[in-house]
Amino acid sequence: MKALIDSYSRQIRYVRVSVTDRCNLRCRYCMPEEGVxxxxxxxxxHYEELLRVITSFASSGVEKIRIxxxxxxxxxxxxxxxxxxxxxxxxxxxxxxxxxxxxxxxxQELRHSGLDRVNISLDTLDRDKFAYITRVDxxxxxxxxxxxxxxxxxxxxxxxxxxIKGFNDDEIPAFASLTLETPLEVRFIELxxxxxxxxxGPLNIIQAHEIRQxxxxxxxxLDPVEYGLGPAKVYRIPGAAGKIGLIDPxxxxxxCSRCNRVRITADGHLRPCLFSTxxxxxxxxxxxxxxxxxxxxxxxxxxxxxxxxxxxxxxxxACALQxxxxxxxxxxx
Length: 333
Ligand code: SAM
Ligand code: SF4
Fold this sequence. Notes:
- The protein has helices at 47-58, 78-86, 103-113, 127-134, 139-151, 172-181, 208-219, 283-287, 292-304, 328-331, and strands at residues 14-18, 64-68, 93-98, 117-121, 158-163, 185-190, 223-225, 233-236, 243-247, 261-264, 269-271, 280-281.
- The chain is of the alpha/beta class.
- The protein has one domain: Aldolase class I (TIM Barrel).
- A twelve-stranded mixed beta sheet has the order 7-8-9-6-5-4-3-2-1-10-11-12.
- Helix 1 crosses helix 9 (292-304) and helix 3 packs parallel to helix 5 (139-151).
- Bound molecules: S-adenosylmethionine and iron/sulfur cluster (SF4).
């Protein structure tokens, strides 16, 4: 097996696959109210095409696949797709990121299809604030979705909270306290000012160290927890059932040097870096009948274009991404 190593000696072990650009919410930092120009049905990768790409990655040492979107649960046939990925033996970790709106009705089928775990995005514990930030009144559905994921042991169940000063910084202790009794991992993500999120100014950014300070002021010193190859630094409130993760693409200089992932967009492009608009078309060549060997070579070539870092300004001066027109919903977060 030939491993996928980029030009900076980082081995790619993790692929995030966006199965749709569509979504049933309109989070203000991710998507305009009217949605985006949705991809034509034909320009979305078919599941069979995605499977060829995933199989190719799997034979080059990728063990971790995350399904994302847009909102992945709105795409028909998702559970059958998950069953097919599950049959690829070398995929050890199969997860999904969802807004949770459809999770209550789908959690059991997802589990039976072979999904290992879910990340659920939830930025506030207040129904009105939820309706404001997502532009849809669906807080209860998401909250029930989290319970369903716990009941189905889609574990560890992780909650993604995009931290936005002036919107949910006052809720950081409440989110942290969810981990006291429940085996959830609450992950605070620094707001990335790209696409739609450029509407939020630098003053809306809370850096990971500030989030940690807010939590420690309330609960005392956090215990660091050994974390694997993921993007989060993980901690625990002493004695808590769950964990707290901090994802710091803006403030942590080593974030990019630790990056071990690439993305596949819903329209079949290999995106080596979230923060770069460079991408390699896989769908065109696939539909022109490329062989497995040629596909593997194309992926390898794409991985070699992964930049050493996304070139984003760090900290509150984060600026370069504001000119990046791509919405997170198109790339998959
Ligand atoms: N619809 C699903 C969801 O919301 O979980 C999956 C796709 S969404 C693009 C993936 C993740 O990206 C979510 O956790 C979302 O909160 C996060 N995200 C979107 N825009 C972001 C931004 N500007 N900064 C930080 N995180 C962002
Ligand atoms: Fe949809 Fe997820 Fe973007 Fe919110 S963050 S608009 S749920 S894709």
